[in-house]
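Q: Start with the shorter request: fold the first protein.
A: Done. Sequence, then structure:
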Amino acid sequence: MLFKLLLSACLALYVTALPQGKANFQKRARAALYTQCTVPNTVALTFDDGPFDYINDISKVLKDNNATGTFFFNGNNYHCIYDQDSVDHVKYVYDQGHHIASHTWSHPDLNTLTADQIHDEMWKIEQALMRITGAYVAFMRPPFGNYNDQVLDVSGVRGQDVVIWDFDSEDSVGASAQESKQKYDQIASKHPSTLLALNHETYSTTAYDVLPHAIQVLKAKGYNLVSVADCVGKPKYQYVGAPEQRTADWHC
């Protein structure tokens, strides 16, 4: 209960600091759940578990092919998001026009947490991304794709839609690069109207082998390679302001 009261106070202060009408944390409905894109002929290439070492190269491959990626970031998973290299990576892909979103702070199974714990997991990554970029995220992906009504309710309070996927490259469960490429070949041959593709930026094979192949195959089918926000027809962020200067509070 104490955490909920403190959270409400913090959110009220944050909303007060925003320009009129930019955010409203009151009377939010349960979060929308997206398991696929809704805009025809779009593919959203998404990348979980970063920021990680290969992210700038992933961004370059995307930009060289007129594609926009969506990066679901953790705060303290493979790296601490406040490490200077991680800060630079987040800022770089954001400045390149890619879409950044929440994957929670420490990558827990949200189904095992209380509502207060879910709020804490979401707030800490939101705060970090606001500090680094100035953007308040509008989308979150629950770790492992696990969610329940409580997760959707908390996300709704925080103004964020929940995003899963309808295609998995399976890079995180042991698929080789060749197997992941074959999966992209197989789904492209079926030519669904849209595709919401799960990848992980923490594998060099995904960055340097699978991604270039996937882009080539998908572009050959005529898909537009866009952000999650664009593939569901919604704004990328709830609010965009100025990034902050580093302080002693920037730590995991």
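Q: Next, the second protein, separately.
A: Sequence, then structure:
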Amino acid sequence: MAKDTLSRSLHDVGLAAWFGGTLANAVALNPAAAQADTASGTGRVANTGWNKWTPVNAAAIGAHLVGSVGELVGNRSRLAGQSGVGSMAIAKTGLTVVALAVTGYSRLLGRKVAQEESVPALAGTEPASSTPGDVATAQKRLSTLQWAIPLLTGALIVVSSFAGEQQRAGEVKKGVLSRFTS
């Protein structure tokens, strides 16, 4: 079996940044924006932070996806020969697709909020009474989604840990034998 250090690194570092960055922004940036002197200042701080994070997040997601494909290619023989690896890969792919969809939808909502750079807000995802209606709706949706993304990417980390356990020599042996005995 060849070493896939580059693929694993891209997969893991990309996923770590995707998870950690979105969690940090939900935990720290959005609430911290409320410390601005004015409601429009709150919106400006939150929008600036998220706009600076977006290209980094896109690069992290790209690295994760490239690494994921590399891992699939590097493990193709295990996918075919070891019981349980294929179903894990399908589950992981499905979870990745959902995380990508939620992240993409969040970005669309975030763009709506950021169209007006200094949109009035009480916090990053909490509209003020003077926030325009469509922006307030987007902020309310983002209030939930800011937690959904770390939840989904955290689940990907757990599934990735499980996938790593499947690569232990004893697990490979059991999985290959199971494939032949069932």
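Q: Describe the second briefly.
A: The longest helix spans residues 39-74. Helices lie at 5-33, 39-74, 76-81, 85-114, 133-165, 169-181.
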